[in-house]
Amino acid sequence: MTTTGSSSRKQQQEAMGMSCCEERERPRKSCAPVHANAGFAAGVLFALLVYFLVRQQTAISAATTAALAQWSTVKQLIRAPGETQLIKAPGEILVTSDVHRVADKQPIQDTDNGKVVCTTEDRSRGLSGTCEVEGDIRTNGTALSVSLVPASWSERHEWMISPYTRSGQSLRVVTVTQLQDRAAAPPCTVTHTMPAILFGIGGYVGNYWHEYADILVPLFVAARRYHGEVTFLVSNIQHMPRWLVKYRALLQGLSKYGVVDMDRDAYVRCFPRVSVGLRLDKDLSIVPELVPGARLTMADFTRFVRETYALPRGAVTMEPYKKPRLLLIQRATSRQFLNEPEIARAAEAAGFEVVVTELRHDGSEVEQARVVNSFDVVLGVHGAGLTNAVHLPPGGVLIQVVPYGKMEPMARFDFSEPATDMGLKYLDYSVSAEESSLLEKLGPDHPAIKDPDSIHRSGWTTMYQFYLMQNVRINTTRFAPTLEQAFNHLRKQ
Ligand SMILES: *[C@@H]1O[C@H](CO)[C@@H](O)[C@H](O)[C@H]1NC(C)=O
Ligand SMILES: *[C@@H]1O[C@H](CO)[C@@H](O)[C@H](O)[C@H]1NC(C)=O
User: Which end of the chain has less neighbouring CB within 10 Å, N or C?
Assistant: First the structure.
């Protein structure tokens, strides 16, 4: 068994999706303390978002670009079984003989005006609005617009939808229009008989937790019902092209048709149905009752990921002479374990095989997931790295170490229910003042030590500067019962 040496630590963290990117703070002016429960939840959520915010790397390797070009179907002729599609340059005349449905000549539903059902932006939860459009639809990538063409005259309506789940992001907004009549509708350059989902990359992408919570889980919810017969229209790809490469397997697992780079799409595409934006019902989880067309759970999502990545372990199984394996996640800058070797020894004493693998920074998402899947327990201080728990086999354990300063609501909000919904056992351990670097740094009389509420009242920035910038030295005697609980849970399987 191996435990980390400090030299391997950085590589390991980078591989775990934590330190490759510079973490930075971006306080929002409107983040005033709120006292209602919902408001508080939103507040802590926002705190988390900012805390997780990382700057993406802008350099894209040649290999990455090549891989993207190969996969992206921007200008490729797409022919699906049972459907005929022609892609022509705008202005060219479609050869209609083998096109059974050309929208401007023969509407999808002659008498149907179609429908648009939108949700509005939810400011209290910081979520963008979404629209479900059904009928005779035209998309225009240049204008980033989605228009519903009615069969007969109807009232014109317009919605502005951010294609990123969390509001307040600087992405181009999608204009969803219900046109008055057919006269205003541009002819189709491509006619798709399958539905499309339009979403954007940007916002907090670059942070592992947000990549799953803001895009991958909501996309699974939106797309799973189509069994691969769906086209993804992705906007703001230029924000981070390598994102599509990183998650290629998952995207391909949800759509057989790849991705249309919306901002560069010169065609007018016609669809019978388009979802604009992704709905985020629950952070890093799924509300089964709200899934369109099927009842899906967060456990279904992690199963989908395991199947797509071909992860070998679909459940925790305890073998008589094998110790359960615990992955200790160390962070690069803030919220580090100061006595990591001692914690590793305590975990070994509790019966675990403590392995800290040296993953390569440029290792693939799939390889990283495979490594995590070989463990039974993930242990770490609150942070995006704990998102790796999605790759644990069900029945496994996530142990979150909560930094000092009444951080439990925020920490739990992001990992407790998600982990439980994934079929994992969730445990946390709250750091005492004695275990925090803050005590030594500030002294026992500082308000950050004596009165955490006052720090939370003074706003996000102050809270961040104190409680999210501490390191922890875990009292392993005090921590031992948590390790024991994790061990006992696994032994019961
Ligand atoms: C798409 O939108 C752009 C920008 O509004 C516009 O100039 C262009 O004519 C539109 N394309 C078609 C085919 O209508
Ligand atoms: C560690 O925790 C134990 C049990 O809570 C306590 O008795 C002991 O004093 C603590 N040790 C230190 C150094 O704080």
Answer: N
Calpha distance 467→461 (Å, rounded)? 10
- Per-residue pLDDT band at 411 (split at 50, 70, 90): very high
User: What is the rounded distance in angstroms from the CA atom of residue 453 to the CA atom of residue 226?
Assistant: 48
Q: Which ligand is nearest to the CA of 474?
A: 2
Site to substitute for ligand 1 among 87, 92, 142, 269, most atoms within 8 A of C-beta: 142
Distance 142 CA to ligand 1 centre (A): 6
Q: Which ligand is nearest to the Cα of residue 104, counting in written order?
A: 1
d(CA 400, CA 112): 53
Query: HSE on the CB side for 308, CA within 13 Å?
Result: 21
For the CA of 477, the nearest ligand: 2
Is the distance from CB of 367 to CB of 480 less than 8 angstroms?
no
DSSP summary character for residue 213: I
142 close to ligand 1 (CB < 6 Angstrom): yes
User: Residue ranges of the domains in the chain?
Assistant: 6-58+310-491, 72-296
Residue 199's SS3 state is: strand
Q: Per-residue b/e over 143-168, b at no fewer than 16 CB within 10 Å?
A: ebbbbbbbbeeeeeeebebbbbbbeb
Q: Does the C-beta of 90 come closer than 6 Å to ligand 1?
A: yes
Ligand 2 is surrounded, with C-beta below 6 A, by 434, 475, 477-478
Q: Which two tokens stand for residue 24?
A: 């930075």
**Residue corresponding to tokens 């963290």:** 13
Six token digits for residue 481: 């019962």
In tens, the pLDDT along 315-356 reads: 998 788 899 999 999 888 889 999 999 999 999 999 999 987
Give tens-digit pLDDT for 431-479: 999 999 999 999 999 999 999 999 999 999 999 999 999 999 999 999 9
pLDDT, tens digit (0-9, with 9 covering 90-100), for 127-171 = 999 999 999 999 999 999 999 999 888 899 999 999 999 998 999
| Ramachandran class of 383: left when φ > 0, alpha when ψ lies in -120 to 50, beta otherwise | left
Residue 466 is encoded by which pair of tokens?
Answer: 């104190």
